[in-house]
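[SOLVED] Need 3D model of a two-part complex

Original post:
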Amino acid sequence: DTGVSQDPRHKITKRGQNVTFRCDPISEHNRLYWYRQTLGQGPEFLTYFQNEAQLEKSRLLSDRFSAERPKGSFSTLEIQRTEQGDSAMYLCASTPETSQETQYFGPGTRLLVL
Amino acid sequence: LAKTTQPISMDSYEGQEVNITCSHNNIATNDYITWYQQFPSQGPRFIIQGYKTKVTNEVASLFIPADRKSSTLSLPRVSLSDTAVYYCLVAGGYNKLIFGAGTRLAVHP
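Solution:
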């Protein structure tokens, strides 16, 4: 399967713990996006990278959140000192350079903070 | 980024054609119109994209009038597996996507 992959698919953690999610985009897609989705709502933009450069961050991305894409391939999203309000589906998407707006999404990582 | 308005929910029956209309009155000249489908516990899946007139692929058709202030996603002969949330988005370039709440389509036997 050459689609966007995310790991883990599910994560349960206790409040105050740190968690890290990984996204592997489609090969050669130079743009990578992170979104968060809560129940009953559409995905909300968090941040995006062009190659290894993080070009935009949403106000939703508090200081507890950090994202990296060190080699311009896979990306990680870390949440420090998790709170119950962080419980959501975290989605990753990637875009090929030749596409105007087609973002290809991964299956998401569902986070539950107890 | 242009905002979109679409019905919160729709119901249909197997074998019927479903048309979901989206309003985007403030669409910019360089904006494309894109529709995504999302099943529970999965990421959104690209369905179709267009700029003007009509676009058709193996899954759906997209109708865009000349003023581009609205668009209609047409799903021919829906089946139970088409039950999902459908999102209409408009954006230009490589911008982030702004999702609304989408349209929850329920297909009944």
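Edit: Chain A has a mean pLDDT of 92.
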